[in-house]
## 1
Amino acid sequence: MNSFFLLFIGIPAIEIFLLIKIGGVIGALSTISLIFLTAIIGLYFAKQQGIKTLRDGALNLYQNQAPIYEIISGASIAVAAFLLIIPGFFTDTLGFLLLIPISRKFLIKTFIKKNKINENKSNKNILDGEIIEDKKDEL
């Protein structure tokens, strides 16, 4: 099954299921309030983490180092903010996991490891060569 299809059908289905279950336990008004509260708190923390990441990136640039981790971290914070804006508990959980520096670092390291493994597999069939011509152009 296509993962793109699963993403757009599966995540809303999980969100609806969780909203119904949690709404049945704590009530509809409390569920809606909780959704707004998690969005507001999450966006506040996303702003704080984004500012910290910008400062760390500027410090790395000042020290003449490439801010690679800060760039990836900033992108994951932006994804976390997007996930926190979407109403639902599953996406809020994923968003908060991306906001926590320890879990974000773990996810980034596994992503980098996975891409390095795939990069090494794809480079096995490459043969480098150089063409040397003996003939010189004569006028």
## 2
Amino acid sequence: MSARGNRAAAEAVSPLPSCIHGDAAFARENKLIHGDNLPVMRALTHTHAGAFRAIYMDPPFNSGRSFKEYRDVWQRADWRSMMRDRMRVMHTLLADDGALFAEIDDTELGTMLELCDTIFGPENRVSIITVVRSAATGHKTINRGPVNVTDFLVLVAKNRSKWKPNAIVRTREGRDPAYSLYLENPTEAPHAWRFSPLAQFVAQGLGKGSAKTAAKDLGRTRFEREMTRFSLDRAAHVARFAQPRFEAVSLEARALIEESRAHPNRTFVLERKGRKPFILRGGNRVLSLADKVRVVNGKKEIVEPVTNVWDDIKFQGIANEGGVTFSRNKKPERLVERVLEMTTSAGDLVLDPFLGSGTTAAVAQKMGRRYLGIESGEAFDSMCVPRMKRVVDGRDFTGISRSRSWQGGGGFAVEKA
């Protein structure tokens, strides 16, 4: 397109004068724009090229269904063309160290992957995250064949070598049964460490002669709760053995593994600068549960690294999140929070070109990110704007408000393209 054509395109979608809610100082970047996202994003390339650290999009899935809010019925070629044009512009808007998260189901997953590989390059595809959104219950149980209970997040970086994700963890329900050893004397020198079965130690503390007796007398469920409570309270005493990856460690570590195998009743320690000690017994690594325990919302929890399967974010019970009802299509604030936790920091700029009910803007506001959301439908006036007013005014107590200690603040601008 010529320079004149670019100017004409920008002028064609120049927003009407802004309506500002809250602190005007925040409205320069925090914007809700009502209009077709393609011309709006094309206009943004003149002012925001390379500016967005993260783009989260939840586009039409081409499900073949019609909803109250919109009709999700496309010819496949039309859907592909619609997404291709928009993703090309998103590539321009994304920062060199930024990432795109595209939520989709299996209807157009293949097309989405092909578009990501074509526009961003297959070398920049990071992951396909499986998001478990429901269970095979109720009317779904009468279906023949696999019951569809998942969405997918296609994660692609602008430049994978420059994208540096934040290390994030998820809480684990209950205890990790792999940590089945009790270290009786963790404060003594490792060569003197004594290990015994955790279940046996807990049972004796409950006045029972064995774990089997404790489970029988107390009930397996109660005994498991006692095991979990004990493990969290005395995490430094709880451990597991894990086989090390021999090919992935240093020559010094390999030599120590061999020595440890030769002396299975001794504990060996290799100190490593800037890293945790490499502790071995019987050729296995000794891992402490204390390394996995964090205080989350004032409560001790076992945490573990996030994988490419997200089955811990509840889609049920979110009907009232944000004070808006968006049947079968609203995403949990916790889902978008994890996306932004992974790839942004406070003050970074986030784009959602299919804003829907306003979830991304609400989460970004509560997390201290800057944001720009685009929505073309009636949901903009009926959901997005009222929702964000409640967030800024401190009247939204749903979603991640409690975990983020959100009490309101900030501001945003409303523009009509």
## 3
Amino acid sequence: MSSSGIALFDLAERRLAYGDRRQEVLAQNIANASTPGWRARDLKSFSATLKTLSPGLAQTNPLHIAGKNGGPKAGQVLTGEMSPDGNGVKLDEELAKVADTEGTHALVTGLYTKYLGLFRTALGK
């Protein structure tokens, strides 16, 4: 059963992709916790990221306005306290963000599975 074309599943897939990308950015922060001059980065919130993405409309005529598709980008530099060597990573905060992202990932995966089960039941499969 393909879930493409169903808005709920498309949103869940985007949320999971966002979580994967955020985990990559947070892992880079943790890996560079002792690198002099490293500044912690994070993604914009998922809701802010959704606002910047186009709804995925097709450009069927050259006179139509082209959409702006793209994924979330790392680079929102967080400001805050720095250690004497210029490193801005706070391990406790980064680990809390990792745990929060992991929990959200589990929630979205659970919802996706439940809704897929409901669709299967409705279709008699």
